[in-house]
Write a structure and sequence with these properties.
Rossmann fold; single chain; 42% helix; 205 residues
Amino acid sequence: MSTRRTLAVVTAGLSQPSSSRLLADRLATATADGLLEAGQETDVEVVELREHAHAIVDAMLTRFPSGELATALDTVTGADGLVMVSPLFTTTYSGLFKSFVDVIDPDALTGKPVLLGATGGTSRHSLALDYSMRPLLTYLRTQVVPTSVFAATDDWAGDGSDALARRIGRAGRELADAVAVRPAATGQEDPFGDTPDFAQLLGGS
């Protein structure tokens, strides 16, 4: 029986559809293809941050995420690997992306393989991946794969599309390799897992 992996895809695109979601989907597909070559199947779960924008602000104020946002956080922290994509504004990741990262438990992503992507109008913003997004995820002690992918408007058509496809393929293989060698994620630990049941108590166990 092949190992099943869970890949959480976090996209901070503000429009619908968005180029950030398009890039995230292609990165997830490339990663799943790489895992399949390693004999591992992949379940992909997408977290669209625009759907949780108000809940993210509330969680920043109360420090207590709830409802669908809490479920989204469990999806991210319980996954075997992450694809995280943000549009770039004024040369850095979006405020929505940063706010979501801020409500994640600082220790919950330790050692988790992460592939970073970003979208923007022109290629001159591409360095933001290395001087803003990568340090942010490195601070959380994640395992950021070497290749990050930036997609400018021109990269989606013409000659740029071939180069983009190659970068996506390379980055997806790197994430797949990082995930494949790790033990499968077990999800969230049950806080009551060590509590004896009534039968044990009545039996004097």
